[in-house]
Amino acid sequence: MFILKRKKSSGVNALTASTRRWALLFLGPVVAAFAIGFVWPFIQGIYLSLCNFRLISDAKFVGFSNYVKAFQDPSFTHSFWYSALYAIVSLVLINVLAFAVAYALTQGIKGSNLFRTVFFMPNLIGGIVLGYIWSMIFDGILSHFNTSILLDSKFGFWGLIILMCWQQIGYMMIIYIAGLQAVPEDMLEAARIDGATRAQTLFKVTIPNVMPSITICMFLSLTNGFKLFDQNLALTAGQPIQIMPGGASIKTTEMLALNIYNTFYGSNAASQGTAQAKAVIFFILVAGLGLAQLAYTRKKEVQQ
Fold it and tell me: Given a cut of 70, is residue 15 above it in pLDDT?
């Protein structure tokens, strides 16, 4: 009996050691790629945000002066508030419309699979292509009013909203459909037996059980709203330009990512450090808002 137990224990230990070796073999390249592709560039980016440089090899440490310049730049503060407004409006519209479409397509209507495909297809088109397509559409419509999307900031704002809703609603719809199909049928049946109306069932049973999908979709909508770049570049490129009372100029439809890009590749070579500081601020902002949103909405999730 004792000998058998010794043999069994040694076999388990051998299996555990073998599993660890295979785990290291497969995880090693992934960890190395993550360190090389993300961790090291991120650390280097933080260092460069504290330097003036044209090339990495000639970086000169200047402390936090780049961050001071970033916060004193009126174009950066404008793009921050503009991006915040855009992110809030797009988050609400995309998620409400995507949930409404997903709810309608899970009610057993004919051709629901075809509708799902049609709604999802815009997400497969690249952002630059979408921006140019919609710029032609909007300019064609606005030409009847002798104006352009590049001449009025409100047209640019709502143009971006329409473009992103058209692109992302189908993707969020798929996530919501998965959540709606996972709602326990016995809960819905119990609600019907208790005489609950369709609206009561929706708000008291369905939505609480779909909160994991809502958490994911809100996170994606919020972060994508702040990170928007290629559609902004192709649709308006930040136009039109407005001259501030102090003489500084800002691009009224320029969002944060585009502002960082324009700062880095601007005419002033010394602004690259400032652009890097803006990028670090941008990362902290998006990461902080995303984590705060995840923490808040996860508290609303119900355990099935």
Answer: no
